[in-house]
Amino acid sequence: MALVLTEEQELLRHSAREFVTKNSPLKRVRALRDSRDPVGFSRELWSEMAQLGWLGIIFPETFGGAGLGYMDLIVVMEELGRNLLPEPMLANVLLGGNAILLGGNESQQQTLLPPLIEGKLLLTVACHEPRARYDLHRVATRADRSGRGWQLSGTKTLVPDGNVADRLVVAARTAGAATDRDGITLFLVNRSASGVSVTPQSVVDSRNAAVVSLDKVPVTEADVVGEVDHGGELLAAVIDRASVGLCAEMLGGMSAAFEMTLDYLKTRTQFGVLIGTFQALKHRAAKLYTETELARSAVMAAAQAVDTNDRDLPLLVSLAKARCSDSFVLIVNEGIQMHGGIGMTDEHDIGLFAKRARAAQLTFGDAAYHRNRYAELSGY
Amino acid sequence: MDLERFREETREWLLANAPKSMFTQPKSMDEICWGGRKTQYPPDVKRWLDVMAERGWTAPAWPKEYGGGGLNREEAKILSQEMARLRLRPPLTGFGLSMIGPLLLQEGSEELKRTHLPPIIRGEIRWCQGYSEPGSGSDLASLQTRAEVDGDSFLLNGQKVWTSYADKADWMFILVRTDPTAKKQEGITFLLMDMDTPGVSVKPILLISGSSPFCETFLESVRVPRANVVGRVNGGWAMAKALLGHERTMIADVFKDRVPGNPLVDLARQYIGGEGRIADAIVRDRITQNDMDQRCLDLTLARSRDEAKAGHKPGPETSIFKYYGTETNMRRRELMVEILGPQGLGWEGAGFDDKELTITRDWLRSRGNSIEGGTSEIQLNIIAKRVLGLPD
Q1: If you placed Cys at A201, which of A209, A263, B39, B201 could pair as Cys (CB 3.0 to 4.6 Å)?
Q2: Count of CB contacts below 8 A, A vs B?
Q3: Among all residues of B, which ones are annotated catalytic?
């Protein structure tokens, strides 16, 4: 398969850009932040995105999806990333949706995926725990046997859109010690179930996140997603796919932050000349451009690996996530520097990108984590 | 023809016709075939060249009428995949195939194509590039070598420098000044010159690595027929720019290890230790970083090729290949010497094996990568100006 967008994908990019530019200028994101909006995104816009079919891109037509692939999804994710849209694509489609698509049984898929694709049901995955860093298998939350089901107890943190999700896919330990690879099981939990308490968190990029505390939350066999004790592998597969989507969003964010900086170099005058005439800045801008091109290739390769069931998917995910993490952070750091004084004010938008870059970098593993994983997967 | 059948037949043909020793990596630079009349190649290398050339498969995608393979894109891709799968060496490399040939196909007159493409394909003529001059390094357009009209010919006077393998080449494509009064880019002509013409002399330059891949080329009243102009008189700069795109992509491609697996990992295991995981965490991380940088570049090269196939014209963004490819290779070469530790200190002789000596020499040679073919700074200028539109 070629590393190039098809005509249809180019059209999709065009319409996504048009939609995002029209409906979500950065001032909307800023207003959501400043008003401390409890929902954190626009349900109207979310429903329009559903109508455009974006929520169903990667899902089979039997569930109301489009039956397309990640090469299509990354086009939309990139455009959303350009304007920092906070609508819950990551939590809902890439995490929650993927957990059900990859691990759910027929009944779970038939009940959950159609409303998810229509934008009427919000799902997320609650897997991260306070001291787990990036270790997916460090799960201390317990699933204790209770009659024919279990009771879940433990604490999840930084659950994306955990404050608004209707249902949570919770990773809990059915066997083994807190760091074992095996013995993890994924359970579907209603946010409103007894024993579940959700506390919204305030995070640097102002996206939705929540602490989810579970106190003897009852679940049954019917709530298990995937196989008992084998949720670890399922979780890893979900996170790999979600990372591809996140990387595409980061690619959009870094491209927009770079273009914003480039515009500034072409309009800001000092010493009677445009600052873009200074070679010290030109060369740095050229290096940042190179970074965006390299990142783009890595993201496309990872997306293609999902679409072709490539064995090398985890390796290519690590390649993309390491690159996007480093490049995005470099671009926003340089972006602030090149903007000078205005760049460090809250008023200027470059800071919004700096914050998103940091949050995205520290989600699903930073560059150092992924270099280590890449080396491990390569056998050294 | 059905592509799967083509794949099978290609594979069978390669297995039947490639000499056994060609299924391995070259043991030294002497086994890499650049063609030409001035170099003797080992018998297997020569035989491999001849059998592939006869089929036109040294230039698989070039038209059959000039001796090329006449393969379409899919077939050419299959051939290259099958060769990679069999670990077969390329039968021929060099500036004829990668630079002047493609330019002639694009811009050359019918006569120039008929004269020059077949000997390139057969590996008979080795080409060199006459661009840089003592006073014109990064500022190539300031070149001074004069070409004055004298009847049906030009008379060339001047000096070229950094001419790669001029001592081994049979022909040179050369930039000369034909109009000293015009703006510097507008008085340049692109010529083809036989290196055996009276008045041409060549002197190799010794580098810090101890090798001499570059030469000085002196031109004293060298007579070149007017028919050897590529493009038009005073239109050479456009030819040079078209060609530089090919060169930058080629340099990025050449400067990477083609051996399967990661030779740095084997090296680190041997010199630093660690059965599974490389014992030194910092070296391991640097190896990974370099590996990932190279992989991202490879993917970007592949993407650029795919875009070209989809009909997008290769543009100035190819400068990122030259810039990033050489910088990545240089970091790699430094890292290799550092992995060797004190064994990386050898220049020649006792106490060091061939591999160690090669790594050290390659590191020194690599210092030139970010200078030759347009320095990294020039590449960044090109990106800033032509891709990003930053003001002068």
Answers
A1: A209
A2: 117
A3: 247
